[in-house]
Amino acid sequence: MSTQDDTDAVRRITAVHPRPDDERLMPYAPAVRVAAPADILFISGSTSSPLYHQHPHVADEHRHPVDIESQTHRAMAGIKLVLDAEGLTWRHVVKVTKYLTDMRDMDGMVTVLAAYFGDWKPASTTVCINALSTPGARVELDMIAVRPTGSAATRST
User: Fold this and answer.
1) What does pTM read for this prediction?
2) 44, 141 Cβ separation under 8 angstroms
3) What are residue 100's phi and psi, to 5 degrees?
4) Which residues contact 147 (CB under 8 A, 6 or more apart)?
5) Residues 24, 29, 30, 31: what is their CA dihedral angle, to the nearest 10 degrees?
6) Which among 3, 57, 120, 140 could disulfide-bond with 152, CB atoms 3.0 to 4.6 Å apart, if both were Cys?
7) Angstrom distance (rounded) from CA 23 to CA 4
8) How many CA atoms lie within 13 A of 83 on its CB side?
């Protein structure tokens, strides 16, 4: 954040920990409070496929890396495009939903997410599903971000 207004706005997004002494045990916040008013951005699911791709799918556009870490980095890159376009950062993300095709991939995925979020831990849900939109995709992430209004990052549409 580049201005005092932006810093103040981000301070209006806080993690809620009913048991603060146990916060260190969690890779996410049990809840996130956003002091109103705020704009809310719902970010569609992102896999390791390119954010923009043809529909119906063309197989050559959906060649996924084998390892969960690379797939997670690529999914995060798609989400970062959206955040950047809106003038937001990872700190503005308040909720992450993670879809995995194999729960054994959770630790590798969480390690990658931590590199992006740093000390910030948004609220989070992980769901194990049978398959994703293209063969070989192992992770899909969707997110909700907020921009408290009154910040310098507020966009007019």
Assistant:
1) 0.84
2) no
3) -120, 145
4) 9, 38, 39, 41, 86, 87, 88, 92, 153, 154, 155
5) 150
6) 3
7) 28
8) 21
DSSP alpha helices (H): ranges in the chain?
4-11, 68-85, 106-117
Low-confidence ranges of the chain (pLDDT < 50): 1, 154-157
In angstroms, the Cα distances linking 24 to 20, 27, 40 are: 8, 8, 28
Helix (H) or strand (E) holding 146: strand 139-148
Q: What whole-number distance in Å separates Cα of residue 28 and Cα of residue 16?
A: 10
What domains, with CATH codes, occur in the chain?
A: 4-15+38-148 (3.30.1330.40)
Cα separation, 83 vs 92, in Å, equals 9
Residue 152: its pLDDT value, please? 52
